[in-house]
User: Fold this.
Amino acid sequence: MQATAELKHTKLPVLKTALPGPVAQQVVAHDAQYISPSYTRPYPLVIKRAKGAMIEDVDGNIFLDFNAGVAVCSTGHAHPHVVEAIKKQVDDFLHICSADYYFPQMPQLAEKLNQLAPGAHDKRVHFGNSGAEAVEGAVKLAMYATRRQKLIGFFGAFHGRTMGALSLTASKFKQRAGFGPQALDVTHVPYANCYRCPYNLTQETCGAKESKGPHCARVIEELLFKTTVPADECAAIVLEPIQGEGGYIVPPASFLQTIREIADRYDIKVIADEVQSGFGRTGKMYASEHFGFVPDILTSAKGIASGLPLSATIARADLMTWGPGAHASTFGGNPVAIAASLATLELLEDGLIENAAQMGDYLLDGFRDLMGKHAIIGDVRGKGLMIGIELVKDRATKEPVPAAMVRVETECFKRGLITLGCGQSTIRLSPPLVIDKDQCDFALKTIDEVLTAITPTV
Assistant:
């Protein structure tokens, strides 16, 4: 009980043992014996309980969570309002297959998503369990609606690990190695990474600031459609409005707008994967809103239910016209997860999205100030509480330093701050949307100290 009370009232880390502690070491050893070695664990955090933005491990150490279960615990760990909604639903019933039966909360959530997703048009929703499942549904819908088979994706993208989603994923070779030919016909092109332009252009020279749009978007029409991807065989262009696993890459608005224009010219659907960037994370409900971008189909997961497994494929109503049996899921739209999502939306609209915007601006300003002190910081970017700090060996060459990213992850953990890397050498910050200024200051101070400590050795 004492540990629970301490966790509830603690806003900053409290470390009581060397890390990992003795109980954590036992759990890690047990895990190694029975759990698939395909999991990636950057450091030995062994969780016992969590509240708000704080995590307590099995040895009583308390950490500040700036990862939120990889952008999942949007309202913080075990928010009382979400927990209350879950308990109430559990008391009523745990499960009914939404593909075969009805319950009132499901269309209630779908109506909310219809209102909140980008675009004034009517939308319909298919519920699943995970981001990958939402992407699979989006691709199936685009193919069904267009009767076309080819897809265009982007290097650096992460859309999931199931075989269809994996065909679109292009962030790390390890995610594909050993799995043979890809299930879908996907052609990848470079994403609009202006910090590392693959065409060695700038926004002033690529067209990003002109009506024609940036070269990295125009290449779809000017090259792909003339060579390997006939436009009338292309079902969809699939993208993340802000790339997640690829390095928290924020494109210029003209990139997304030009893709929208190209897709409209050829009746190609645009799928926006907002699994990581959606549900308030960027200081708006969906990242697409920052760019005035309206996709035909949008995927949402991660933060949608504050930690319970739920996803949504949200599409134009005139597009989602497939008949009964065309697509379904036994557990998709589970009533307990639906209840958690409705409670999550209430909290987001009651101030957490605004807090994400404010705390995000505060952190971005703080980390940009640190660039004057640490030459290893090549770029700081993000929207709201979706922030990337890219580490480089030299700012002139922009050579990545993956070893430094790993060191920062580990050293932050040792100091009680939970972070995670992405891309080649980017530290990602995706904390719960409930964090406050004191917790932001701790994160800034800790990463400052860690960069000072590791710079001479990387």
